[in-house]
């Protein structure tokens, strides 16, 4: 029999909601490649492109951004951001409409066959949130308890996702700051040799490279990825709230058609089933 303990565990439902964990989100990938590509083309067409390749600027901007993140947040949270960022390049989560038929089927089986049929059907459920909801019904939880546990899981998911996005937002602010810091370093070094006017132009151009790197890193990568992950969180929360309505409908042995209408009420008209 399914154990009720499953329902109280802290589970990251981000992995449950993916439609294809092995695929790539072409929109995000094309956006990054297209943005970087256009900038590279513009730099090459402008001539003297070699000046835009500066290891010192990379060390200042990237190193400063990462270092301040480690100062501001727990190191374990920083390391956990790697799979989070990778997740932005994966396809969008499964849509709520993809689970409506399954939930209606479970509701019909429970109404006609009772608890044993529902328990057997639980093994075929692949979404962990839905699976935990069914497990609680099988284990004898009452309606208030089921709703409370599912609501707690939604809040926990939002807290975890928002914590990761907070780190990215912080990094997006720090990148341009260290870009400016690198420019100041370059200007100071340039002023040390101001007695030679012929070096001022190239030195000033080199000094401005760090600001360029900081702006590109923040506005072409970090900030858009943060926004993408925020939208992903909204999609996952909508999915889970829709599944929660379905779970409560199954528990109450509601008519499957009624469950469908209640689940559709959370969705935009073009996303509704039936």
Structure summary:
This protein is an all-alpha fold.
Amount of beta strand: under 5%
Global geometry: elongated
- Terminal Cα separation, in Å? 34 Å
Q: pLDDT below 50 for ≥5 consecutive residues: which ranges?
A: 1-21
Total DSSP E strands: 0
What is the count of helical runs?
11
Percent range of helical residues: over 70%
| Rg, alpha carbons | 26 Å
Could you say which structural class the secondary elements and strand pairing correspond to? mainly alpha
Task: Report the major sheet.
Answer: none
The averaged pLDDT comes out at 85
Order of helices and strands: HHHHHHHHHHH
Number of domains: 1
Question: How are the SSEs ordered, and which strands pair?
Answer:
Blueprint: H1 5-8, H2 26-46, H3 55-72, H4 75-79, H5 81-87, H6 97-113, H7 115-122, H8 128-138, H9 143-191, H10 200-251, H11 256-264
Describe, in plain words, how this protein is organized in 3D.
The protein is an all-alpha fold. The protein has one domain. It has helices spanning 5-8, 26-46, 55-72, 75-79, 81-87, 97-113, 115-122, 128-138, 143-191, 200-251, 256-264. α2 (26-46) packs antiparallel against α10, α3 (55-72) runs parallel beside α10 (200-251) and α7 packs antiparallel against α8 (128-138). It is elongated, with a radius of gyration of 26 Å.
């Amino acid at each position: 029999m399914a154990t009720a303990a499953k329902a109280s565990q802290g589970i990251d439902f981000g992995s449950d909601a993916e439609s294809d964990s092995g695929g790539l989100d072409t929109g995000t990938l094309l956006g990054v490649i297209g943005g970087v590509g256009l900038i590279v083309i513009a730099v090459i067409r402008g001539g003297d492109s070699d000046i835009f390749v500066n290891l010192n600027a990379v060390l200042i901007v990237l190193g400063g951004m990462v270092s301040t993140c480690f100062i501001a947040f727990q190191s374990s949270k920083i390391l956990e951001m790697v799979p989070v960022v990778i997740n932005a390049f994966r396809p969008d989560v499964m849509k709520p409409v993809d689970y409506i038929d399954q939930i209606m089927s479970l509701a019909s089986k429970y109404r006609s066959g009772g608890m044993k049929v529902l328990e057997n059907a639980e093994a075929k459920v692949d979404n962990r949130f839905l699976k935990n909801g069914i497990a609680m019904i099988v284990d004898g939880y009452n309606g208030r308890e089921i709703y409370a546990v599912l609501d707690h899981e939604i809040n926990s998911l939002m807290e975890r996702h928002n914590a990761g996005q907070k780190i990215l937002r912080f990094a997006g602010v720090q990148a341009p700051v260290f870009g400016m810091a690198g420019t100041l370093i370059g200007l100071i070094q340039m002023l040390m040799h101001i007695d030679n006017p012929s070096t001022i132009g190239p030195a000033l151009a080199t000094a401005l490279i760090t600001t360029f790197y900081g702006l590109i890193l923040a506005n072409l990568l970090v900030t858009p990825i943060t926004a993408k992950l925020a939208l992903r969180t909204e999609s996952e929360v909508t999915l889970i709230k829709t599944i929660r309505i379905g779970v409560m409908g199954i528990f109450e042995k509601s008519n499957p058609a009624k469950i469908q209408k209640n689940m559709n009420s959370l969705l935009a008209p073009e996303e509704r089933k039936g």
